[in-house]
Write a structure and sequence with these properties.
By secondary structure, the chain is of the alpha/beta class. It folds into 3 domains: about 180 residues, FAD/NAD(P)-binding domain; about 120 residues, 3-Layer(bba) Sandwich (FAD/NAD(P)-binding domain); about 120 residues, Enolase-like, domain 1 (2-Layer Sandwich), CATH 3.30.390. The chain contains 15 helices and 22 strands. The strands form 5 sheets. Strands 1, 2, 3, 4, 5, 6, 7 and 17 form an 8-stranded mixed beta sheet that branches. Strands 18-19-22-21-20 form a 5-stranded antiparallel beta sheet, sandwiched between helices. Strands 11-10-9-15 form a 4-stranded parallel beta sheet. Helix 3 packs antiparallel against helix 4. About 45% of the residues are buried. The N terminus and C terminus are likely disordered.
Length: about 500
Amino acid sequence: MREAATTGTSRTYDVIVIGAGPVGENVADRTRVAGLSTVIVESELIGGECSYWACEPSKALLRPVLARADARRVPGLRAAAAGPLDIPAVLAHRDEMTFHRDDTKQAEWLRGVAVDLLRGHGRLEGPRCVSVTTPEGDTTVLTARHAVVLCTGTTAAVPDGLGLESTRHWTSREATSADHVPGRLAVVGGGVVAVEMATAWQGLGAEVTMLVRDGGLLHRMEPFAGELVTESLRETGVDIRFDVTVTAVKRKDGDDGEVTITLDDGSHLVADEILFATGRSPRTTDVGLDSIGLTPGDWLAVDDSCRVTAVSGGWLYAVGDVNRRALLTHQGKYQARIAGAAIGSRANGEPAQADRWGRHAATADGTAVPQVVFTDPEVASVGLTTHEAAQSERRIDVVDYDLARVSGAHQYARSYRGRARMLVDADQGTVVGVTLVGPGVGEVLHAATIAVVGEVPLDRLWHAVPAFPTISEVWLRLLETYRDRTRTDQDLADITTG
C-alpha cells in the first residue's frame, strides 16, 4: 500500500475523490483495493443524497403506503388494513433509516477500508490539483498522482421566473425529510420523483394535486406505465391535471402561510406546500471546472471508463449522476466499480479492458439500465422502450401480456392489475427491453436485466423454468405469446407464398 505524502497543508495522494455519496465511496473502495492511496472530500454528509434525502427516506415513506395497498387487495386482510397509518411511527422509521442524518457510521466505514476523509468543499485548481476549504475556513491543497474523480451528483432543478428563490418551497430534499403531513400538497412534475412523492404523501393523508406540463406521467417509459399509475393515483384521490404550466407562486403571510399557485390558463390553486419535481442539474457550478477550461454548471461527457473526454491526459473522471449517463444510484455504483478498477489498472501500468462488456467499460449504461418506480402499481423496466427501439436500426418485435392472467398474480392479489412488455431483436433472437407494471414486479426485474445483459437467446430462455405460482411465470407467458404469434405469421406467409 502506498502511503499519502503530507507536507503542511499540502498532501499528495494517488487518487482524489470529490463527493462521498455511494458513488464516491465505491470509487474509493476500488482504488484502495488496487493499492492506491486515496482521499475522499465531502462538504455535506458522507453517504450523500441517496442515504439522507432520496432513495432511503423516500422508500421508507412509501413502504407502509404500498404495503397497506397490497393488504387491502388480499381477502382476510382488507378490514385490518382499512384504518389510517401511524404517521409518527412512519416518520420515526424514516428517520432511523437515515440515521437521523448522522454519518458517523459512514465515516467509520471509510476508516475501515483505509480511505482518508477530508471534510470541506473541494475545487479543482488546475490539472490534478484540488483545493479544499474546510468548515473552519482553512485551506488544504491536494495533488493527485494518477486521478481526480468528480462524484458530485446532482441537485434539484426548479423553473426560473417564478420567484422561488425568495419563496419557501419543497424539492426532493424537503419532500423526503418533512416532519409533518401537509394538509394540501401541490406536486409540479410528472416524473419518478413526482409520482413517488404523490403516492407517499397521499397515502399518509395529504390532499395531493399534480400539475403536469406533459400529457401523461412517466413520459420516458412505456406509455402504458404512466397510464396505469395515473388510473391508480386518481382512484386514491389524487387530482392530476395534465398540459398545465405553473406561471407564478406566492405565499401568504411570509414563509408560514398558504401558497397560491397561478396556472397558464389564469386559474389558481391554493396549497399548504408545493413540491417542484422538475428535473435535476449537475453539481458542477463550483468545483473549479473553469480552471481546466471547462464550463461551470455543465454535465460532464465521459467515455465508457468514465474519463472526461474534454480533458487531455486522462486524469479526470466523472462518475455517477454528474455525467448524465444514467441518473440512478445503482448505475452510479456500477460506474464507480468500473472506474475505480480502471484507475487502478492504469496506475499500475496494466492495459484497460475497455472493449464492450470489458471489466473497465460501463456498457450497460447504454443497453441495460434497470429502474423501479415505487408506486401502486410498481413500474419496473430495463433496456429499450418501444419508442427508443423505433429510433434504432434494429428490427424489433413487441410482445405484450396481461399480468393479471399469471397464476402468481392471483395469489398476490385477487384484483391484480398489470401489464408486461418484452422487446425482441427479431434478427438476433434476444431480449432487448422489458417493462413490467403491477404490484411486486420490482422483485422480478433482475431476471429481465440478466436476460438483456446476457443477450440470452430466446431458445435458451425456454429452459429457465419459473416457479409456480409466482409472478415470474410472466416469462413463460411472454415466450409462449411470441412463439404462437410467430407461428401464426409463418403460417400466413406459407399460405401467401403457396
